[in-house]
Write a sequence for this structure.
């Protein structure tokens, strides 16, 4: 990290940094997600590249002050291109002892530690399991630049005179912390001020209190003797264009609404509340003017079934969930496979099995997506690589579904669903609509044959209500062509092959796999889904050191890109890195008979760049 | 411009599929009344949809030449909700049974009814699992001996009507498979109802549960065992129409004999339009042999239908915000420009 001295401002030294990783952590009720999101906004608007990692407990409010209730938000902002929220933390803001205890290990030596010293009373310490006050522990704090700030008292002072209760005043301390951090990193608070004004438009006293606390934090930075240095991170050199900050779930919702708008037809979205997929439902339910119809079903089964119904009626149909919900959807997805109807199923993966780790990320469900239905039940699978990529893959999944008359699974995960990055806003005229031609006339002398296939084995998609084309379909095996119920042994074998071949044919309609870094050589790092950022950064770093390493990041998992086998053969070692116990690696080994190696992590956390570099080096 | 609809007959709604129900199954009669009804509704043939789950009754869509979906066990109400969610203009019928609708699909049935989705749901109640060859169902009486209850069922049955009314149904009716005139009338009423119309049909499974409803279907017996409901009319029944239902001081129904000072005016007068569903619920609880069982429309009230409301929300959103603008959507929230 380069540093250079710049002219001092406000009597204090200012240093320039390329990149900073900051983490806000506190109790679930301390508003850390909000503080982190605001810091992300102002940094993005300022022009930094940003990458975030919200990390919160599954409980809305675990016992206050407990270790289980700690909520954190990590932000990496930079003047360069970045791919991850960062491995080590430069600045840690800890609002209570529990937050300090669970996060201090990630603060790098020499890093800045800012604590709310008011919340280190005996009761707070006890809840966090501290026998003595860690703020008095010189050994613990020696490696860090420590700032003990009386945030509770100072934010109370800041809002004094507004007539707020003590508890209401204390709710403002996240804004005090935020204000201090804004000063520390020379952030322009305007976007946050505007946000507060809008958010609390109907509660002007709360708006005023938060603004005062924010200002109080900034003022404190200027006036206190505790901070001698503050920092500047110049804007990044991103490709020209208009940018916004986007999370994966936002991008999925916007991508789906875009598909509906471009095709000028409705989009039906059926969901059931589940972490971390619910935000897609929230976002889409506000987009009815795009022709989006959202349906909050009674359960996951009904959500999937309703999507099948909407597809049979002849409209774009989507359902989303996370692992446990996807299990429940399996039955109706199988019906979608049998009836060969287009629909997209989004799986925002989280730690499993069962309820598992609802708020933590994991590449848990590739095998579930591949094989989680009864019978031979193939369907295409795609996976988004980054938050912004969710926008594109939502449309791509729908395109494949409609083009091939099949359910398609789109895999996202908790990390990219909640993580944010700058997103270059696409030009509307560059977007490609999904065009569908529904039949309006009989397709044979024997009447309308719903399973009469084209050269790619795709059957027609008839909209219900089309005169003359009345037909019946269902979950029983069908006779090819007529779609009539057919139990003939040879027909079943034929149809099983046809369904498999149709999905295999998708390989011709997706791009070839590209490789980053070495195009052939010692080692190919193979990854998929939300691990893109960390893996790409690791391979980039090693490539720049001249190592013979390539990176192939799969966005198409079934079928695989048609050149994948050839590509794997160009490298001495294939290493598959996944946040599970090894799912893609099994598919690769069984399909291509490659002696692929694996690196796995299953802690509910994303990869760190440093650990990947270490692993890759051990295989070189 | 109005186009003259072609005059259709029941035959026009026959499909080319061979019927595969057992001979003399009650399903035939229901199918026949259904095919008679459709041409009378003035709806183009292509605007009908029949959706079913799994079970004997769920073969129904194959035998009607409309759009049809023979789906998966218990899910028909959910699938039909999806269809109505995008196509409120279609008339969608859901065909289900006591196992399909009340056991594996109980949740979907309950919630479709609660939402008042514009669906016409016919529940064929034969008190048995027929397609899987004779296990007891959620409507089988206690003590029922079946393949899976050789010592008699110990499960308490539930009443489809109670489930429907408890789920806030706006239209609830009951009929009997072989009572073709009555069944036709009820189907027609359901077709014209706005919102979920729920019909329980007593249906004889002559293979696995033969005669379960003889008391309600056999001429010469049924007169004593069922009471036809007519809106605004007293509840009178019996071979000689000399008995009635009166609500006693404990607010419970009781069977009384007319005469000896008891007149029609003392009887319960049916009000299918009562907003408050208690009367309908009470009627639905009248069980043979203690009471004559009511057939007819128990409840028919107006409430906005889900699919219509969903459609309206979309239309209103477009009117209020204008048709969605992608550029505006992409740039919602803070944006910045890199040059």
């Amino acid at each position: 990290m380069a540093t250079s001295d710049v002219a001092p401002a406000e009597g204090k030294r200012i240093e320039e940094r390329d990149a900073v990783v900051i983490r806000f952590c506190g109790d679930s009720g301390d508003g850390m997600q909000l503080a982190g999101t605001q810091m992300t906004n102002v940094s993005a608007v300022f022009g930094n590249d940003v990458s975030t990692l919200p990390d919160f407990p599954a409980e809305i409010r675990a016992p206050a002050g407990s270790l289980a209730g700690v909520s954190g938000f990590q932000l990496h902002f930079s003047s360069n291109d970045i791919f991850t929220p960062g491995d080590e933390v430069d600045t840690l803001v800890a609002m209570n002892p529990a937050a300090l205890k669970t996060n201090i290990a990630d603060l790098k030596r020499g890093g800045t530690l800012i604590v709310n010293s008011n919340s280190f009373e005996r009761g707070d310490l006890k809840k966090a399991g501290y026998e003595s006050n860690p703020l008095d522990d010189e050994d613990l704090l020696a490696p860090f630049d420590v700032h003990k700030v009386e945030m509770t008292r100072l934010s109370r002072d800041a809002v004094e005179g507004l007539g707020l209760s003590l508890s209401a005043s204390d709710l403002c301390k996240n804004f005090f912390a935020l204000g201090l951090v804004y000063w520390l990193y020379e952030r322009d608070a305007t976007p946050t001020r505007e946000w507060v004004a809008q958010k609390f438009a109907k509660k002007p006293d709360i708006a005023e209190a938060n603004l005062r606390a924010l200002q109080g934090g900034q003022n404190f930075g200027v006036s206190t003797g505790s901070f001698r240095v503050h920092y500047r991170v110049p804007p990044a050199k991103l490709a020209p264009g208009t940018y916004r900050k986007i999370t994966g779930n936002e991008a999925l919702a916007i991508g789906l609404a875009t598909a509906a708008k471009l095709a000028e037809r409705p989009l039906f979205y059926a969901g059931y509340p589940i972490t971390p997929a619910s935000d897609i439902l929230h976002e889409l339910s506000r987009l009815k003017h795009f022709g989006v119809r959202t349906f909050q079903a009674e359960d996951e089964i009904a959500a999937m079934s309703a999507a099948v119904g909407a597809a049979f009626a002849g409209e774009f149909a989507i359902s989303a969930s996370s692992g446990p919900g996807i299990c429940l959807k399996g039955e109706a997805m199988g019906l979608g496979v049998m009836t060969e109807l287009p629909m997209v199923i989004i799986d925002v993966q989280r730690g499993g099995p069962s309820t598992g780790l609802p708020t933590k990320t994991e590449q848990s469900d590739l095998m579930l997506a591949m094989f989680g239905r009864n019978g031979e039940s193939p369907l295409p699978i795609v996976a988004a690589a980054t938050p912004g990529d969710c926008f594109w893959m939502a449309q791509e999944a729908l395109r494949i579904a409609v083009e091939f008359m099949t359910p398609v699974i789109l895999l996202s995960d908790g990390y990219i669903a909640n993580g944010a990055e700058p997103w270059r806003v696409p030009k509307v005229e560059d977007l490609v609509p999904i065009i569908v031609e529904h039949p309006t006339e009989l397709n044979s002398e024997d009447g309308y044959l719903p399973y009469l296939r084209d050269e790619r084995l795709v059957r027609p998609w008839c909209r219900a209500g089309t005169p003359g084309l009345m037909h019946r379909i269902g979950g029983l095996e069908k006779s090819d062509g007529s779609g009539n119920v057919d139990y003939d042994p040879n027909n079943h074998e034929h149809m099983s092959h046809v369904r498999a071949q149709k999905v295999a044919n998708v390989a011709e309609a997706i791009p070839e796999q590209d490789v980053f870094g070495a195009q052939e050589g010692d080692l190919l790092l193979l990854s998929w889904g939300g691990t893109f950022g960390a893996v790409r950064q690791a391979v980039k770093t090693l490539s720049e050191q001249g190592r013979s390493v390539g990176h192939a990041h799969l966005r198409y998992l079934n079928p695989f890109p048609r050149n994948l086998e050839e590509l794997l053969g160009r490298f001495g070692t294939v290493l598959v890195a996944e946040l599970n116990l090894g799912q893609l690696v099994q598919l690769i080994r069984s399909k291509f008979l490659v002696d692929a190696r694996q690196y796995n992590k299953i802690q509910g956390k994303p990869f760190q760049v440093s650990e990947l570099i270490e692993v890759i080096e051990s295989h070189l | 411009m109005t186009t003259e609809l072609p005059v259709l007959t029941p035959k026009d709604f026959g499909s080319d599929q061979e019927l595969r129900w057992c001979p003399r199954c009650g399903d035939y009669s229901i199918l026949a009344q259904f095919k008679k009804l459709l041409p009378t509704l003035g709806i183009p043939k292509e605007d009908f949809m029949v959706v079913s789950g799994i079970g004997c009754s769920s073969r129904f869509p194959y035998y009607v030449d409309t759009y049809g979906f023979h789906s998966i066990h218990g899910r028909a109400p959910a699938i039909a909700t999806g269809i109505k969610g995008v196509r409120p203009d279609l008339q969608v019928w859901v065909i289900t049974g006591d196992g399909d609708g009340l056991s594996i699909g109980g949740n979907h049935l309950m919630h479709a009814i609660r939402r008042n989705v514009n669906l016409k749901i016919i529940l064929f109640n034969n008190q048995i699992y027929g397609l899987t060859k004779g296990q007891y169902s959620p409507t089988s009486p206690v003590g029922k001996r079946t393949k899976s209850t050789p010592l008699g069922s110990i499960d308490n049955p539930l009443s489809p009507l109670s489930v429907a009314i408890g789920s806030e149904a706006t239209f609830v009716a009951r009929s009997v498979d072989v009572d073709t005139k009555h069944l036709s009338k009820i189907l027609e009423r359901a077709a014209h109802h706005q919102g979920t119309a729920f019909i329980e049909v007593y249906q004889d499974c002559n293979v696995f549960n033969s005669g379960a409803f003889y008391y309600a279907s056999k001429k010469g017996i049924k007169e004593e065992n069922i009471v036809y409901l007519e809106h605004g009319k007293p509840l009178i029944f019996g071979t000689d129409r000399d008995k009635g239902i009166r609500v006693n001081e404990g607010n419970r129904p009781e069977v009384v004999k007319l005469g000896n000072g008891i007149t029609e005016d003392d009887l319960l007068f049916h009000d299918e339009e009562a907003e408050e569903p208690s009367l309908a619920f009470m009627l639905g609880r009248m069980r043979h042999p203690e009471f004559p069982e009511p057939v007819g429309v128990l409840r028919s009230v107006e409430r906005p239908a889900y699919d219509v409301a969903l459609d309206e929300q979309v239309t209103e959103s477009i009117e209020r915000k204008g048709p969605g603008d992608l550029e505006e959507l992409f740039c919602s929230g803070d944006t910045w420009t890199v040059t």
User: Anything to note?
Assistant: Chain A has a mean pLDDT of 95. Chain A has three domains: 3-232, 246-509, 516-619.
